[in-house]
């Protein structure tokens, strides 16, 4: 799931920015092919979300160059698909070249190999990490990338540190800095928190779910078990939350859908937020990748038409008449 930061203009409404009939101004939507045996739905879902994220699409277009890996270049393969999304007359396009580049890049790790099903969230995250390497290959230390042209770290990365502070004796651990491209939350923990925190915001709910089971020993060993505090230090424009399910078939699906919020405040998601912009900003849900019956599909919010679009490989449909689960 991706939330994108969207600042409303005073008095402005998102729906008003779209004028009926101006179809030419829409970012084009096309399907991505998935022939029998290809098992490319995980990749297709990740690519559709990346394409529909305005910030990502525009930033990628504006990048002047990259360190190319030729045949196995994920960056080039993604650019080709994006250009076909824009210019092709076909309703559905092959994603084979990107699939091949992904398989070649992760050959040694035996991940994302041709014909095998894989994880869409990890695919999304790894494409972003590869883009970082194509822009700043000298910066192997991903956690400290400060390159202004790196889309991955400038737009998606959450720069965090975690620390545990003991309420009982006051001792605190050394702050541990790290970056995250996807913030993972356990579904089981989320559903447990929903019962206890009916009045809290979606962000606070996620924070509670991601810290609740994560107790550490007091740094001075006074005997207390304490919660970890995560502090956000930057203001990411796109925030991705990955929900971790305990099993393929879960009876928590309806409950999860019911607890999903369409707005997210970063101040709720983390113990503390230091960046002023991040404190004020509110993020809106703009995309989702879903998994069911060994198959991935995705939903994305089409900014210009203010409509949700459903992507299932070659099939693209506008979502109409969303019913709220009571
Ligand atoms: Zn290239
Ligand atoms: Zn980077
Ligand atoms: Zn203590």
Description:
The protein is 32% helix and 23% strand. It has 326 residues and is an alpha+beta fold. The strands form 3 sheets. Strands 1, 6, 9, 10, 12, 13, 14 and 15 form an 8-stranded mixed beta sheet that branches. The chain binds zinc ion (ZN) (3 copies). Keywords: Hydrolase, Ubl conjugation pathway.
Quick summary of this structure?
With 326 residues, this protein is α+β, with helices and mostly antiparallel strands.
Main attributes?
326 residues, binds zinc ion, globular, eight-stranded mixed β-sheet, alpha+beta, 32% helix, 15 strands
Secondary structure layout plus pairing:
Elements lengths: L1 E4 L25 E2 L8 H12 L1 H9 L11 H14 L4 E2 L2 H10 L14 H16 L15 H6 L1 E7 L11 E5 L2 E4 H10 L5 H10 L3 E3 L7 E8 L5 E7 L8 H7 L3 E3 H4 L2 E2 L2 H5 L1 E11 L2 E8 L4 E6 L2 E4 L8
Parallel strand pairs: 2-3, 6-9, 8-11
Antiparallel strand pairs: 1-9, 1-12, 4-5, 4-8, 7-8, 10-12, 12-13, 13-14, 14-15
Helix pairs in contact: 1-5, 3-4, 7-8
Bound molecules: zinc ion (3 copies).
Q: Would you count the extended β strands for me?
A: 15
Q: Give the averaged pLDDT, no decimals.
A: 87
How much helicity do the residues have?
Answer: 25-40%
Largest sheet geometry: 8 strands, mixed
Bound small molecules, deduplicated? zinc ion
- Our measurement of the CA-to-CA distance between the termini, rounded to an integer number of angstroms, reads 22 Å
- What's the helix count? 11
Structural class: alpha+beta
Q: Beta fraction of the residues?
A: 15-25%
Low-pLDDT stretches are 6-25
* Coarse morphology: globular
Helix and strand succession?
EEHHHEHHHEEEHHEEEHEHEHEEEE
The Rg value, from CA coordinates, equals: 21 Å
Organism: Gadus morhua (Atlantic cod)
Pfam families: UCH
Domain USP: 30-326
GO molecular function: cysteine-type deubiquitinase activity
